[in-house]
Write a structure and sequence with these properties.
It contains five helices and nine strands, in the order αββββαββαααβββ. With 218 residues, the chain is α+β, with helices and mostly antiparallel strands. It has a domain of 151 residues: Electron Transport, Fmn-binding Protein, Chain A (Pnp Oxidase, Chain A, Roll). The radius of gyration is 20 Å and the shape is globular. This is Pyridoxine/pyridoxamine 5'-phosphate oxidase.
Length: 218
């Protein structure tokens, strides 16, 4: 590449909607559920995709896209190989942040908090719900570790299929789930001329666990 690639003039205006304090559910989990449902209704083909940011014990950041699999008022859950860099980072520093972006609605949601591992019971239950191919892929892969070739990876899957011809490959104990327990939510609605609407939910210690909502400047 020669020279600067200039995108300073690349922009669009946000015209989908507005967000007012009176529109917000007092419970951020319900607000999130409503916005996720709206993203799905708007035909976002990957509405559950979230950018997950973690850092190691020295504070070096890392980020990747993962898929939200389920949530309730205890937190947002996803599954992965816990031997991965993400797993090692969360073991050293169990804090994380996620962001969802739904361009069809000009909306973004940010969530941060502490992370805990899901139980083996929960991991087993979800693993068995996955398509057969996904189960064999998870069992064959040591996520993020180097491998010589695509053929070598496929050979690992083939060896497992030969060993478990009925498709009942077991979950590797290293494959499991995590739950992000939110400390803050931020709901962002894009507006014209970059005068966006932003609201943050937090739970200060002196509120007895009640969520407090503040409007933020864009």
């Amino acid at each position: 590449m020669e020279g600067e690639i200039d995108h300073r003039s690349t922009r669009r205006d946000y015209v989908h909607s507005e967000l007012h304090r009176k529109d917000l559910n007092p419970d951020p989990f319900h607000q999130f559920s409503d916005w996720l449902a709206a993203a799905i209704a708007a035909h976002n083909f990957d509405a559950t995709a979230m950018a997950l940011a973690t850092s190691d014990a020295e504070g070096h950041p890392d980020v990747r896209i993962v898929l939200l699999k389920h949530f309730d008022e205890s937190g947002l859950c996803w599954y992965t190989d816990q031997r991965s860099p993400m797993g090692r980072q969360l073991a050293a520093n169990p804090q994380a942040a996620v962001v969802f972006y739904w361009p069809e609605n000009d909306r973004q949601v940010r969530v941060d908090g502490t992370v805990e591992k899901l139980s083996d019971v929960e991991a087993d239950a979800y693993f068995q719900q996955r398509p057969e191919g996904s189960r064999f892929a998870a069992a064959a892969s040591e996520q993020s570790q180097p491998i010589a070739s695509r053929a070598a990876l496929e050979q690992r899957v083939a060896a497992l299929r030969a060993r478990y011809p009925a498709g009942d490959v077991p979950r590797n104990p290293a494959w499991g789930g995590y739950r992000l327990q939110p400390e803050h939510f931020e709901f962002w609605q894009g507006r014209r001329s970059r005068l966006h609407d932003r609201f943050r939910y937090s739970r200060p210690a002196d509120t007895g666990g009640a969520w407090v909502i503040q409007r933020l400047m864009p």
